[in-house]
Design a protein that fits this description.
Helices cover 31% and strands 51% of the residues. By secondary structure, it is an alpha+beta fold. The chain has a 4-stranded antiparallel beta sheet, with helices on one face.
């Protein structure tokens, strides 16, 4: 098990309920594949450095997770298909 950081930039128009549901969904993908979520920190809405999909703002969410390296590929595949997620970055801590 390795420790990873996952930063997600989510669509700025999501309300609090939809954002918390997205956080639960991502956490569920990690735990379903044998990992653990150490921390899920919602940073809130921030200005983007450049427009992504015609959006100038995004809601940032930082996850700290322990998971096997093979789980990273599954997690990235699931994140790619989520429409509200503008960008994400998974890195080894």
């Amino acid at each position: 098990m390795r420790e990873y950081e996952l930063m997600c930039v989510v669509h700025p128009d999501l309300d609090e309920n939809a954002l918390s549901e997205m956080v639960k969904r991502i956490s569920g993908w990690v735990t379903d594949n044998g990992g653990t979520v150490l921390k899920a920190d919602v940073w809130g809405k921030r200005q983007l450095a450049y427009p992504i999909r015609k959006q100038k703002q995004g809601q940032y969410v930082l996850f700290q997770v322990n998971m096997a390296p093979s789980t990273g590929a599954i997690l990235e595949r699931n994140l790619r298909f989520q429409e509200p997620i503008l960008r994400f970055l998974l890195s080894v801590k």
